[in-house]
User: Fold these one by one.
Assistant:
Number 1:
Amino acid sequence: MATDPQMRSPETYGEIDPRIEALVHDLIAQVADKWTMILIEVLHDHGEQRFTRIAEKVPGISQKMLTQTLRQMERNGLVVRTIHPVVPPKVEYRLTDLGVSLGEAFCGVWTWAEDHLETVETARRGFDGRATA
Amino acid sequence: MATDPQMRSPETYGEIDPRIEALVHDLIAQVADKWTMILIEVLHDHGEQRFTRIAEKVPGISQKMLTQTLRQMERNGLVVRTIHPVVPPKVEYRLTDLGVSLGEAFCGVWTWAEDHLETVETARRGFDGRATA
DNA sequence: ATTTATACTAACCAAAAAGAGAGTGTGAAA
DNA sequence: TTTCACACTCTCTTTTTGGTTAGTATAAAT
């Protein structure tokens, strides 16, 4: 019995390099993150923006999450952060090419969701109906 | 000040139907879920499998998460669950066409991650280096 | 002299998600 | 007769996540 998650049995779904896999999961988890997706969208549609302008365009986000998400995106090279040394502070965020390309890669999933919206909702209703009965 | 997340100002990134958007986020959040992705992969590579066989192929997953994730996938129409009324119980899970198509839609992101792995890691090292300095 | 704007960080708290472990029903094998 | 396999469910605890609030520096505007 392999209780150690580090240990992989030969039966483990395993032709893929675990390093790649980790990064893939990681990246997808981050991008699929509610806010990251929205921020990519906003930055793509409106171009370079400063902190408060972004916040205004994303209702419901807290300062904390905005900062956190932008930092993460910066760390991954999805945005560049430009500090203008003026007072009051001015910081601008811009999508990098990498950020843009990630947005595009995600279009596949996005359009899948649009295309199969009805199917999924029908499946859900069916399942919920069966469960109630 | 619009503190109500339901209320959308005209400046809100807003040409998209919010119903579609909600479902898209929802779906992506679910698919991007660590386990769902892995389960799609396993079921795709190995075909119809029963509960314990799946568990063996996914080290680190708890019974709880396996059940939960499979149920969610079933509800969304990504898998079908077949109960064989024997004892001890035998339940098999199979990817639906919808499930397969979702896996394919996700390939774009998957390959993006593979293609840009180096870029992302470099960006991270740069960021972390700057932070330490 | 007080207020305002900006882009944050830090501390604290509540809620949600996930893990661990025990329990369940049943028939066949030992 | 005890044990075992299977596919769970239930409960309890831990971890993670996110929100809220307060605070900071500084110069310009009032």
Number 2:
Amino acid sequence: MTRSEENYLKIIFHLGGSNSTPITTNAIAEQMETKPSSVTDMAKKLAEKGLVNYKKYQGVSLTDQGTKTALSIIRKHRLWEVFLVKKLDFSWDEVHEVAEQLEHIKSEKLIDKIDELLEFPKFDPHGDPIPSKDGKFMVRDKQLLSEVAIGDKGVCVGVKDSSAPFLKFLDKNKIALGHTIQVLEKEDFDQSLHIAMEGRELRISHQIASNLYVKKNE
Amino acid sequence: MTRSEENYLKIIFHLGGSNSTPITTNAIAEQMETKPSSVTDMAKKLAEKGLVNYKKYQGVSLTDQGTKTALSIIRKHRLWEVFLVKKLDFSWDEVHEVAEQLEHIKSEKLIDKIDELLEFPKFDPHGDPIPSKDGKFMVRDKQLLSEVAIGDKGVCVGVKDSSAPFLKFLDKNKIALGHTIQVLEKEDFDQSLHIAMEGRELRISHQIASNLYVKKNE
DNA sequence: AATTAAATTTAGACAAAACTAAAAATAGGT
DNA sequence: ACCTATTTTTAGTTTTGTCTAAATTTAATT
Ligand SMILES: [Mn+2]
Ligand SMILES: [Mn+2]
Ligand SMILES: [Mn+2]
Ligand SMILES: [Mn+2]
């Protein structure tokens, strides 16, 4: 498995290409920051290796083997992110870039030992689940803050957009995973929310609310 | 800097190509497990970038910039080796292969934090010195056990051959860095040594003795 | 000094992963 | 059903790092 092949599999998985849902050439090209013609070439190569299903003009989906491989890369990526935050004091907006490199290190023992050192975390710093060695992971029932009804409370458990600018914005406004949020009011005009959190009240835009996941309290 | 360029610089350094000592094409090819013609190609490219001095048929040596780069790769390699041993319980014969990959991860912050986590170690698990950020490192006055005079004592501080088979042999015979060794007798016939170490006596071949570094006691 | 052996470089080719430009297939709108 | 816009594929290049085979230079030996 080359680094490039691994990145393609990971991206196809993230675009939903597991469960034999076909993903378009253009969608993959956009995520890979490459050209559609390059995606076609790689689709053929991965199909040759039995990692994806590919029929001309019909898009690409992962085989079981391809899904398994994608999950093992994602497992490594997220474990390294946890490592960087918990053991090396990186902030959650700095880890993704480095994890993009570390995820390609080939050593089963290494990642198992990292997992052990971190005491087998189930979620990464952005709230995304960490697949186990055999490719299983928790699906947390969560919803976007923008879809929570007025008056309801929830715990912030993840971000949808994990870009550095968004994460830095959250830091600046002291919004962090684990905080409890109550929706006080929704502004009809611009969909902004008035929320209560950790003993203070603040107003956040729809754009922010639709990139924050909360787990509703029972 | 590509991974391949980094590996070439590291190998030229290890062959003594710092201090403007020219290293032959063949020697580099052998270490890189590649063909001499490939080395010539790379020599041109590295010369183009100002990392090596290269004149046709005259061998290759590192420039100051090339030496600096080589030392930063070696620094990363050795720090990762310490990390693997101290934090993840790898044995000293398992770390080299993984460090060969980790040494190419590009993040200044990452390696500085690893350095800090390890409390700024000065030597790697094989007794090799770890260069500082500015490329300085300790030169320990050590000598091969095979060159120690009869009756003299020394502390085992490093290995010359750090291949897995040799390291495993040392483990099996409970020879480890930090142990004090006294040479009791040298066998004229096969140059084997009779030594005392940690309260027991044993006989070791010349081949072993000439791959173990000791620091003589004053 | 001439010959031979060894080391090194050149020339041409290849695989991986990307690109551009052109051709082909699909999907939408009338 | 036809035309058009979009998507996708093909064909032909490029770059990086390698290779083989042939040519050249250097070193060693007579
Ligand atoms: Mn990647
Ligand atoms: Mn993440
Ligand atoms: Mn390397
Ligand atoms: Mn070492």
Number 3:
Amino acid sequence: MPYDPSAFPPFAVTVDLVVLTVRRHALCALAVRRGEPPFQGRWALPGGFVRADEDLAQAAARELAEETGLRAHDPSTPAQDNGAHLEQLATYGDPKRDPRMRVVSVAHLALAPDLPAPRAGGDASNARWAPVEELLQQGGYGRDGEPVAPLAFDHAQILADGVERARSKIEYSSLATAFCPTEFTVGELRRVYEAVWGVALDPRNFHRKVTGTPGFLVPTGGTTTRQGGRPAQLFRAGGATLLNPPMLRPEV
Amino acid sequence: MPYDPSAFPPFAVTVDLVVLTVRRHALCALAVRRGEPPFQGRWALPGGFVRADEDLAQAAARELAEETGLRAHDPSTPAQDNGAHLEQLATYGDPKRDPRMRVVSVAHLALAPDLPAPRAGGDASNARWAPVEELLQQGGYGRDGEPVAPLAFDHAQILADGVERARSKIEYSSLATAFCPTEFTVGELRRVYEAVWGVALDPRNFHRKVTGTPGFLVPTGGTTTRQGGRPAQLFRAGGATLLNPPMLRPEV
DNA sequence: ATCATAGTCGTCTTCCTGACGATAAACACT
DNA sequence: AGTGTTTATCGTCAGGAAGACGACTATGAT
């Protein structure tokens, strides 16, 4: 078939972000309140249109910076600075996912250490970190007893897919360090795994596993006592990106 | 920002397919010859525009049927019929990836058993199964001494990503059975792993592993001798989709 | 001083894997 | 019929990794 510019329907292309962090022992995602219809007033994932001259990864990094101030580091340059990890998640293109028009959204997954405070266009009341279970429970009641509306569009599905990606990826990669600040302790890293997986891990076996995996952790020499108890060694993320053998997620 | 239909640039959205199969002990991908510019005469991955009323998965299934005659089975209805496995791979949206216009391509990965013959719009000379190493080597010479042109667009990258996805996914899932016909032997399944990974596996340990994993293989009672040697038991794919513990890919 | 908390080192058992010997059942020869 | 070849299948053994859990250490709180 010859090339015919009228042969294809026009689409709008957006990027949506699943930004995850660990706060107070819970896996949290960034949500923004929608200011206009459709779904006005409802919570949604941050995102926006891809510009005409922009790559998808660039658009995702730009949105991430606009919403959180985080720089994304290039995936080819792993965890050195305290920028966020950013990767493409999946693409959602149901014809009816946006009632206004045909929109294809390329969702991205970002993992960040605990941050001071979200900012959505300068208005803090329109952005928040919320535990993912709270955002995913449809039509229930939140911790404060307020009714919880489901996320706008198909964002509950996107968030669920992003959480599942994070849960499986920390098994066989060193990605859990993306949730930690530059220097962290073994206990802090363990609490990341526990929050993301929602399980309790044996501190002794965990310590043996992570310190025994070459390239995973690099001791910085310092110690800290910010968690109480005996001072703990401080580590930085090592160069290894793949864990072999993987960290095993407990059954059930 | 209020909704403004002129606020976003229009995109064309396509699906491209990485269709993999195992033929003659080699991992092969389906390639089609381009009939029009750009890249006229070069080999490319099959694909096409997403229609206005079509979901992305529907578009991919339609293209797969057009190119190969294969029905894709729904991911929620695993390996029963001899349809192909189809899943979304990744999305490619570099502004310059298509010189004509802004095209975002949602690549999909399909795994199929060895098929009679490809058909691309009825013209067999414009479609072929080629070993992935042959398609991925840039500017070398093929088995027959002819110069090999690299794949059109960014399809070499897409193919490489698809192959990598397949290689890693057969580690921890029962997806390797998607390369096999409905009934197959342990040896045939082993040859799938060997072709996809490009390694030799110990037949005895492989046999112990796959027959010892509950839900992976279901004996059908029959035997076959189509490989020569002692008759082998026939199996069908069991209901299990996740392999735990995974099949280990040898180092090197 | 005592307790609570968190970190770190060991031990033991169990399971899984890799290496590899041995047997079984077909076919192709001579 | 006998012999060799090929593929399938069962068994054995050693090494490594993980789960369960005891023991000890170093802080702060009471």
Number 4:
Amino acid sequence: MQVTMCPERAIMEHITSKWGVLVLQVLSDGGSWRFSALRRELEDVVSEKMLTQTLRTLERDGFVHREVHPVIPPHVEYALTPLGKGAASHLVALAHWIEANQPEVSQAQRRYDNS
Amino acid sequence: MQVTMCPERAIMEHITSKWGVLVLQVLSDGGSWRFSALRRELEDVVSEKMLTQTLRTLERDGFVHREVHPVIPPHVEYALTPLGKGAASHLVALAHWIEANQPEVSQAQRRYDNS
DNA sequence: TGGGGTACTTACTCGGAGGTGAGCGTGCAG
DNA sequence: CTGCACGCTCACCTCCGAGTAAGTACCCCA
């Protein structure tokens, strides 16, 4: 493995970033989402600032397509590109694995804590 | 998706943490590693402090097995548990995907930057 | 008349992630 | 006899990820 800051590691950090993980999972259903609908779906745990920033990074990497309808009030839609779907699928697989194994992990944590 | 801090999200953050991603990938080859060998493999980009902290978190989650040989000088070995192998395999898959698609991503970034 | 929704941007602030350097207690190589 | 390797831990400090609040420009509904 090549480690010193290479493009691959940067891309990995974008995908596995705190908010990137969540955004990619929501978008992975294939639909297209408006900014505030996306935020509501994430139960407002992410601030507007960080959501914008995260979406910009993912857009720059070619994972997210941003479509602006120049109307007032503003209307913007976000969706995964084919490239984004590839990345997101791995994240979704990991998320499913975690969901399935969460009890086992929690048990391991309890074991570790009382010892 | 359930979002407000649930055990699943915490586990996801451990696995996708900055150093967790790298450690799990190195350990994923199945072998067992000594502390400083692991650090050298990561080309010293991670400090001793953060490596210890990351390994502790992964151990608590039941992903990493830590075996201490009580000799002087100290001898400690780290290896993935079966549970850890499950998690790491998804990370490795993602890493391979990134490696394969890195040129396309870099191209997207260049396109984004000159516009 | 004014309050809320839309999709942001900017400025200010703060906590915590993370780096640095030292210390430890011994065995072994030089 | 010196000094390094090992696998940490602790104290200190820095910097950046992230939150909060306010502003924007316009429309619609009450």
